[in-house]
UniProtKB/TrEMBL annotation:
It comes from Rhodobacter calidifons. It comes from the Bacteria. Keywords: Signal. Belongs to the bacterial solute-binding protein 1 family. This is Extracellular solute-binding protein. It is found in: Periplasm. Residues 1-41 form the signal peptide.
Length: 542
């Protein structure tokens, strides 16, 4: 048996990880509907696209993206006549980080452009630049894009200001959005009862670890760490040892210490959520009645202190970790063979086996966010000596949105939604879940193990990888962030203050946390406290 992860919370029914297993335990929270069924033309299409280029055949190229896009045009052809959008030009704003996102979209949409006659112009943004570019467009009233790749946390900033176009009913049917996993169903993607989002991603953080570091006689110990307390202890104990795969210095957990346009804040959230997300309380970032920040309570301070302890331990982190952002920790460090533990979005799982630069595909394992041996109860203002788990639903997934720029031009509006629907198609989405794309499994239909096996994944790996996603999505104490205006203003300033704390500009973790809380209070007052309270409560279902 593989070491059991996170087993201490017996009341939380969840999958037990099995080494080399071919079946799930009875407590599985995986989506239903995976019973064998007769082969169909749709099944054959899915098998065909999963064979492009084939797991273990290297990184996909633009030619492969175009091939997948062409094969998945059936739904478009059912709703759009050939050449129907001739003369239409659309502008699409999205990411280009890690050579993914927009670069794939270009390939997927080239066949769509050729069939429909429309033309797409591109605005490519680095992840660190995304929030500032979007906020600038909103603040100045200069939205210069018709289609937008955006995460659900920004819906308050966009849908809440009337900047998005409402989704037509035919789009919802074309993409089969009933297939989305539960936590991505409405109210996510909606505002005031209107639907705006085509989901293309799931975005929970999961735990990736090196199996060659753990086990009997391994340098990291007999068992995989299952709490943040154990993660830090192992990271310190590995100092001075040698990586079993590369022969270079061994390292434990890879914290990104450099900001990433607000997105880096999610990584301190992983540590903090285990300490502060109480099962009896939906809130963990702010007090829902006052919007008073909780980011400086003892649980958050402990999370910051964890990182500071590793910074103060020579050799615990790779050299120059102070300049490592999350992209570095995943793609330049972990997948390239540096470090033994990482929290990241699920694309680390698909990239491990399908990227030219990954060397850890045969030794990587997965789990949910490490827990804690104790938890802080904000309502009681005291620690409880009770174990706790809280996977972080970091960013609630990328989606494709159409802006209100096209609302007055029905031909352009239909073209924009057709392009978006092509990218959010059910079959195409399976390919993006299985290959490097920037996205991770997010539909119930993505959890059919047989499809992944047929593509070249071995059963044990795919059960481990998909299971870590499903266990996080379905966890009863998942930490879900609010869809409120200004959320990335909060995150960005938190990154700035954390950077000062990690660099030693503040005297302590508490002082660092207090600085974040003070900055958050100013943002809340600027936006309007009463309105934020109302929206925050609504986002929590209160």
């Amino acid at each position: 048996m593989k070491p059991r992860l996170y087993e201490y919370a017996s009341r939380l029914s969840r999958r037990r990880f099995l080494k080399g297993a071919t079946a799930l335990g009875a407590a599985s929270a995986l989506p239903a509907g995976l019973m064998p069924k007769p082969a169909s033309a749709q099944d054959n299409l899915r098998a065909r696209i999963l064979a492009i280029p084939g797991v273990g055949q290297g990184s996909p190229t633009d030619a492969h993206w175009q091939q997948v896009g062409e094969l998945c045009l059936g739904a478009t052809k059912a709703n759009v006549a050939e050449g129907e959008f001739a003369g239409v030009e659309l502008t699409f704003m999205g990411l280009n980080n890690q050579n993914l996102h927009n670069l794939l979209f270009r390939g997927f949409l080239k066949p769509w452009e050729a069939y429909t006659g429309a033309r797409i112009n591109w605005i490519d943004l680095a992840q660190a630049d995304y929030n500032s570019r979007l906020q600038q467009s909103i603040a100045t009233g200069t939205v210069d894009f018709d289609i937008l790749e955006m995460g659900a946390p920004f819906e308050g900033d966009t849908a809440g200001r009337g900047l998005l176009d409402e989704m037509p009913d035919w789009v919802s049917a074309q993409i089969d959005d009933s297939d989305l996993v539960g936590y991505l169903q409405p109210p996510v993607g909606t505002w005031n009862g209107k639907k705006y989002r085509i989901t293309i991603d799931g975005d929970c953080h999961t735990f990736a670890y090196r199996k060659d570091y753990f086990g009997e006689g391994a340098i990291g110990g007999a068992e995989v760490p299952r709490t943040w307390q154990q993660v830090n202890a192992v990271s310190k104990a590995l100092v001075g040892q040698t990586d079993p795969l590369t022969g270079l210095p061994a390292h434990g957990y890879l914290d990104p210490l450099k900001g990433w346009g607000g997105f880096g804040f999610y990584f301190i959230c992983n540590r903090a959520a285990a300490y502060v997300k109480h099962p009896d309380d939906r809130a963990w970032l702010f007090d829902p009645d006052t919007m008073k920040p909780r980011v400086n309570n003892p649980g958050w301070v402990q999370a910051i202190q964890d990182v500071m302890d590793l910074i103060a331990t020579p050799g615990a982190y790779p050299a120059d970790q102070i300049n490592a952002d999350p992209g570095t920790t995943a793609f330049s460090q972990f997948l390239a063979g540096t470090g033994s533990m990482l929290m990241w979005w699920g694309d680390v799982g698909s990239s491990a086996r399908t990227s030219d630069t990954s060397v850890v595909g045969d030794v990587v394992g997965f789990g949910i966010n490490p827990g804690s041996e104790r938890r802080y109860n904000s309502a009681a203002g005291a620690w409880e000596e009770t174990a706790n788990e809280a996977p972080v639903m970091a960013y609630i997934g990328w989606g494709i949105y159409v802006t209100s720029r096209v609302s007055g031009d029905e031909k352009k509006r239909k073209a924009a939604w057709s392009a978006a629907a092509h990218l959010g198609g059910k079959d195409l989405s399976l390919w993006t879940a299985a290959y490097p794309s920037g996205f991770q499994p997010y539909r119930n239909s993505h959890f059919n193990y047989e499809e992944w096996e047929a593509a070249g994944y071995d059963r044990a790996f795919v059960e481990d990888y998909l299971g870590s996603n499903a266990d996080s999505y379905n966890h009863p104490n998942a930490a879900i962030e609010p869809r409120i205006p200004g959320i990335f203003q909060y995150y960005s300033v938190a990154e700035d203050e954390l950077a000062k704390g990690f660099a030693g500009q503040y005297k302590s973790a508490q002082e660092t946390a207090d600085a974040i809380a003070a900055a958050w209070e100013k943002i809340t007052d600027q936006i309007g406290r009463d309105n934020q309270i109302a929206l925050y409560k609504a986002s929590l279902g209160m």
